[in-house]
Amino acid sequence: MKKLLASTFLAAGLYALAGSAQAAECGDVSIAEMNWASAGVAAQVDKFVLENGYGCTVTLVTGDTMPTFTSMNEKAEPDVAPEFWVNSVRTALDAAIAEGRLIQAAPLLSEGGVEGWWIPKFLADAHPDIKTVQDALKHPELFPAPEDASKGAVHNCPSGWNCQVSTANLYKATEAEKAGFTLVDTGSAAGLDGSIANAFEKKQGWLGYYWAPTAILGKYEMTKLSFGVEHNKAEWDACTAVPDCPAPKVNSYPVSDVYTVVTKAFSEKAGVAMDYMKTRQWDNGTVGKVLAWMGDNQGTNEDAAKYFLQTYPDMWTKWVAPDVAEKIKAAL
Amino acid sequence: MALCDVLPGFICKFPAISDTSIRMARKSIDDGFKALVRSYIDIIDAMVQPLQWFLNYLERLFVSSPWPIILLVMVAIVYFGSRNIRITIGTAVSMFVIGLLGLWNDTMVTLAMVTVCTLIAILIGIPIGILMARSDRVQSIINPILDVMQTMPSFVYLIPVVMIFGIGKVPGLIAVVIYAVPPMIRLTNLGIRLVDKEVLEAADAFGSSGWQKLKNVQMPLALPTIMAGINQTIMMSLAMVVVASMVGVGGLGKNVLQAINNQFFTVGFLNGFALVAIAIIFDRTSQAYGRRLQKHSEIIHG
Q1: What's the CA gap between A48 and A331, in Å, rounded?
Q2: pLDDT tens digit string along B109-119?
Q3: Signal peptide position in this chain (chain A) (predicted)?
């Protein structure tokens, strides 16, 4: 019995050694899998590429923008945030980059992220006169509030996201209150998505904050309303994005910078993969297609990542060296 | 080298149903559910409308009444419930501190929500508990359901609830009640089952009807356990109010979520402590009230 046990341990130990020898050239990497779809798929694509192309051992860490940033900045954990909307933490990120703690890699979304106030496309088609936010605010009856149908609703972004501040300020600036609207706090990403899904099930109007590229916009067709003014950066930084700004003016959302952010430790231990991190980017159209496929097929983030790698080889083979691409293809 | 190289494949990799068929099944279930929601949505909306009105009304009442009135009413309720000066002073002081910290309105929203949730949980829980105590078969059916209610992650049932009811107080209320009602049911059932057989025989001997037995013998003797159930329900409602704010319920929970997402340590703790203060007020008052109701000391069951 003793002998049997000893040999089992020995075998297990050797097996473990063999496993670690493979990953020696890259090491253990943790990637933040953010809790919205496009970032989740990006994280899974990175995981697949790093594991099969570069031989890293990847663990995914579930995250959200602010907690993940705090953790990366203070504890250098996780190593990589593939899709990071940097506008919300620009100052702190710049400081971290200057001090060499974090590195800004590729702009993951080549066109940046699109934010704004959206209405369902079926409503926009039925009411061609609604082109801007101001037009929509003339019709509170088209956008009944979930808790009080006598008022119109502007759905705010989830609690604690930066867009909550800007949406509230724009709500004030457009005098939506006077127009008979209330600002509805959706609470969480799930609440916001649920309210859109619910409106489409009821074939009811919906007005509120949303952003692309997202699965919801791949699944439900929505039209973005213009604010009727150009994006004014000075005003945005001084007031629109500041909580409790006394007199906000009407402004348009900026196009958001979306970058991959990695820790210094990652660039040291996984240097082989740094080039990939610096070149990899995709466009909103592709992401939208992948997310729509994911919604239609009830796929997980992992399924969608595999689907992307299988469907768009022309795009991703440009991100890596030919021998790495072969390895990844073999693993598919 | 590896064990799996020599063993047949199905031992090392669980023979799962293929991804495609699982995906098809998931998709058809989802589509079926959506179709169902679509066909009944008007009826469902009409059914929960009164509840929505009541919740809105109560919240408006709590938020828009002048604060001294609310404070006085609260202190009066606490005093007449507990007849205990220390608890009463504690209530006044803690509510005052909450007001000073600028959390008055949020606390009122949460208070309205928790009050309704607790009342509904008690109204649903006690009759079901009594039914369970009266029949072993009912108990064996309801127990597993309670297990599911208490262990199923709330986010899971929030998905269909939001689909059906949209966002706001009604789905929040449903989520909170599902989570908070099981202890009420379980402890009511337990309390009644633990009533001494001999006492019931005596009641029978004096010719009590079933209703009289329940009202005059079983319920009074089960009261300490039932009060513990009420207390648990209150505590669980308060804990769940934070999760309910993920589907658009305002109040303290919303601030907590915001604090989590932004890493605002102090904001999170202040709002958390406001919840704790409400919980302690509810708890001490209901406990003291329960003790006063107690005309009979609990019999030790050996």
Answers
A1: 9
A2: 999 999 899 99
A3: 1-23
- Residue type for position A199: A
Token pair of B208 as six digits: 């009590």
**CA distances for B253 relative to A171, A296, B126, B279, angstroms:** 23, 34, 28, 14
Beta bridge partners of A115: A211
Taking the C-alpha atoms of residue A174 and residue A166, their distance in angstroms, rounded to an integer, is 12
Specify the DSSP element, H or E, that contains B277: helix B265-293
* Chain segment A183-232, per-residue pLDDT in tens: 998 888 888 988 998 888 888 899 999 988 887 887 788 999 999 898 99
Cβ proximity of A71 and A78 under 8 Å: yes
Largest CA distance in chain A: 83
The distance in angstroms from the start CA to the end CA of chain B is: 61
pLDDT for B23: 81
Per the CB < 8 A criterion, the answer to whether B154 and B180 are in contact is no
Over residues A263-281, the mean pLDDT reads 88
Query: pLDDT confidence of A273, banded at 50, 70, 90?
Result: confident
| Coil, helix or strand at residue A225 | strand
Q: Using DSSP, state whether A84 is helix, strand or coil.
A: strand
Considering only CA atoms, which of B156, B165, B157, B152 is closest in space to residue B248?
B165
Query: pLDDT at residue A134 above 70?
Result: yes
Report field, pTM of the whole predicted structure over 0.85: no
Q: Is B30 on the interface with A (CB under 8 A)?
A: yes
Distance in Å, alpha carbon of B141 to nearest chain A alpha carbon: 32
pLDDT > 90? residue B142: yes
Q: With an 8 Å Cβ cutoff, is A201 touching chain B? A: yes
Distance CA A71, CA A80 (A): 11
Angle at A147 between CA B48 and CA B103, to 5 degrees: 120
Contact (CB, 8 A) for B280 and A180: no
Which amino acid type is present at position A30?
A: S
Give the torsion sign (CA, B194, B199, B201, B207). negative
Mean pLDDT of A116-129: 92
- Which contiguous run of DSSP H or E holds residue B124? helix B104-134
Judge whether A187 and B155 are in contact, CB under 8 Å.
no
Chain segment A290-315, per-residue pLDDT in tens: 988 888 887 888 989 999 999 999 99
| Among B1, B56, B164, B261, the residue to mutate for chain A (most A Cβ within 10 A) | B261
The minimal CB distance from B1 to the residues A15, A66, A148 is found for A15
- Nearest CA to A34 out of A95, A80, A93, A76 is that of A80
Residue A321 backbone zone (phi > 0: left; psi -120 to 50: alpha; other: beta) = beta
